Amino acid sequence: MTDPRKPPVTITRVATAGEEAARASQPPPATVRDLTKLYRSGEVEKALEQARALAMKYPASPGAWNIRGAAARSLGQLEEAEASFVKLGELQPLFAGAPYNLALVLDKKGRSEAAIKAYESAIALDAGLFQAHTNIGIIKTRMNDLRGAILSLKRALDLHPQSPETLNSLGTALKRAQRPGDARKAFEQALHFNPDFAQARFNLGVLLEEMGEPQDAAAALRAVLRVKPDHEIARAHLAHLLARCCDWDAIAEQRREIRRLGVETPGVPPWPLLAFEDAPERQLARAKSWAQRRFPSSPAPPQFARPEARPERLRIGYLGGDFHDHATTHLMMGMLAAHDRSRFEVHALNYGEQPEDAYRKKARAAVEHFHDIARQPNTAIAERVTQIGFDVLIDCKGYSSGTRHEILERRLAPVQLHYTAYPGTLAAPFIDYIVADRIVVPPEAREFMAERLIRLPHSYLPMDDRREIAPLRTSHADHGLPEGAFVFCCFNASYKITAREFDIWMRLLAEVEGSVLWLFRSNPLAGTSLRAQAKKRGIDPMRLVFAERLPNSDHLARHAHADLFLDTFAVNAHTTASDALWAGLPLVTRRGQQFAARVAASLLEAAGLSELITASDEEYERLALSLARDPQRLAAIRQKLAERRDTAPLFDTALYTRHFEAGLDAAYERWRRGDSPADIDVTRLPG
User: Fold this and answer.
1) Which of 18, 81, 229, 316 counts the highest number of beta carbons within 10 A?
2) Cα 685 vs. chain centroid, distance in angstroms?
3) Are 627 and 588 in contact (CB under 8 A)?
């Protein structure tokens, strides 16, 4: 983009009608030149002060209003900037710089549609303004009008085919449009014309990671940091990529810089850093700094009419991108179907780009209204949501990958809450509540949640008690497991595994003769790294066995080949813990401090297996070793778990749904009465 201190389009000549009158109404040309020079030198406050005085003395001076608007925009005084450029347009209706500069201000104010119209006015006056086409493309990408964005950016490239900035913006739009090959070409072209273009190389690195090329992705992100060491978002992505690959040596080299991210630096996405430390106060700081960076000027919320009584059916909408074969949908499916349709009208709004699959079809059948909105721009979605008229909107994405918070940012329902996807606070100004329980957010951690809480009486995480477990048709050998071996298991994503847990796991393998550790193969590099780490600790690398991805019912079935699930610490097993318990596999966890580090404890408590919750690394290791050495004790726990499937709250989807509905009712009732959001403790129902 252009230098913010320099007007992107400058006035080269003041049109005059009646030369004598014009000269009298204009300041001396040297005065305007000196003012422009002052502004461009960086003395913006002084330039604004002088421009105000000049515009007051010569109110017909386009130059004075142009510099006044540009300086005010640079200083964040957007109302004055907007008024200045409107005045400039009145004085010089044929000057393209007036609507162009006005568009910059409107975009900064979050008025995207008005900004596009202003850019289009500038283009109508000057067809060669390629930057206006580029900026329209950037705004339309942000609005998810991807077809329009790509068209605008290609128009810009017709005018300026070697613009690295426009090529980078085109790559971003193509990536969002699920065209990774074309996006890669666009980013690579941008880098061809400017090899030091850090943002294009960052975008390429993120794309390469998504395309399954972690080594090239890491190389790209490292290259970004060589050119721009303070690119904190690139460092956060690199840290998460290294964690996914279990490259702990590389992480150790950057530990100090990683720890600072989002706490001592400008905001970064919190999700990639959750597993690096168990510190709720620091996770809150990261969420706040990211929200401030991501949502600096949210639009004013609309005023909703408060009804005199609760509607007969509360209209609720689940908004997210994972209504397909995804962990969130696996968990929520039973609850979606179990809603009381006499009291709730249930909608699902899916903005995920994944193709139709069996789980998408199940989700369609589970709700009354299923809305495919993936390819719709945010403005169209907002209009649709407004027409539907939701009482409660439920965010099912949080800060996880692919979120579209621009929709919720518009405040399209009187009550908006976050649910399931992101295990922690969002600190977003448009989220009223987060669904939790007394385990994941104990009283001593309440201050680290920015939202009000809807505390469910058992676990906050839903469980589908209709999930199918395929018949067991495999042997240990079919999964690469030695017959007769004790099988420790952890199917958590590789980024959750750190040297801290791994040291304990290797000691357990050393203590339990012939045992193996069965892990999920998140990516090939992680498997290679973990086996190398095992060898460094004196353990035969082949005692680590890796499970491939399977259909969910077959994945649940293979748990029968494991003996004990070992949890990770800073980010627990969430869906994987739910899977294990549903499949009858006991799990040992260490209860930590932050939300993400307490989820497995929440599930075990709701399953009636609190004896598997430990409070320290040492207790965790002792319990796991004791269970591995005491087959009768472990068998008794397995039997207890099997029996609890018929009685424990964790496995009662209907009961869970009634509790969840009670929380929604209470939140809505507070709004209906005119009360501010406040913590809600849902009363335990019999079940």
Assistant:
1) 81
2) 34
3) yes
